[in-house]
Amino acid sequence: MERDRHIKGFTLLEALVALVVLSVGMLGIAALYVDSVSRGRTALDRTKAVVLAADMADRIRANSIAGAAYGGAAADNDCADVLAAGNKLCSPAEMAAHDLMLWQATVADPRVGLPGGQGTVVHDPASTPDTYIITISWTEVGEPDPLTYILRIQT
Questions:
Q1: Pairing state of beta strands 147-154 and 118-124?
Q2: Dihedral sign, CA of 12, 17, 22, 28?
Q3: Separation CA 149–CA 50 (nearest Å)
Q4: pTM for the structure as a whole
Q5: What is the DSSP letter of 144?
Q6: What angle do CA 119, 75, 104 make, to 5 degrees?
Q7: Nearest-CA neighbor of 132 among 27, 62, 76?
Q8: Would you give the DSSP letter of residue 154?
Q9: Cβ neighbours of residue 117 closer than 8 Å, sequence gap 6 or more
Q10: What is the distance between the alpha carbons of residues 151 and 120, in angstroms, rounded to a whole number?
Q11: Rounded Cα–Cα distance for residues 75 and 40 (Å)
């Protein structure tokens, strides 16, 4: 009988303390995972904003004759494919309005653009060379105000 008193091993209290320490560690790992997923989504949205702004900058550079038309109103002028039946050959200003309409639709589409996305282009006619300010705003989960990306280009 005396031999049983000297048996070494875990007591119930030691096992419970180990379980509490392990649980706190697992909660910390779960919080870190949630934070990394959130930051990954934010990084993806910022990358999309940069790509969308660069897309509009390329459209402006490709149709630099249109000038101030990129700062005007967007319009569906059926300029997307001049080879398709029913589409017309558009002037540079009509193409600019059509480009703006397609681009704004892409920015606002949550599947390919940004959540709550809005895009604007402002042309500064007083500058030489022509200067355009491309602005993209979107809503971000957990942010009280919309996030904004601004790209200034000169042609």
A1: unpaired
A2: positive
A3: 7
A4: 0.74
A5: S
A6: 20
A7: 62
A8: E
A9: 52, 107, 108, 109, 110, 136, 137, 138
A10: 11
A11: 35
Residue 134 has pLDDT above 70, yes or no: yes
% of the chain residues with pLDDT over 70: 88
139's enclosing H/E stretch is: none
Check pLDDT > 70 for residue 109: yes
d(CA 29, CA 40): 16
Under a CB-based contact definition with an 8 Å cutoff, are residues 88 and 98 in contact?
no
- The answer to whether the peptide bond before residue 92 is cis (omega within 30 degrees of 0) is no
Residue type at position 24: V
Spatial distance between the Cα atoms of 56 and 58, rounded to a whole number of angstroms: 5
Are 67 and 155 contacting, i.e. CB atoms less than 8 angstroms apart? Answer: no
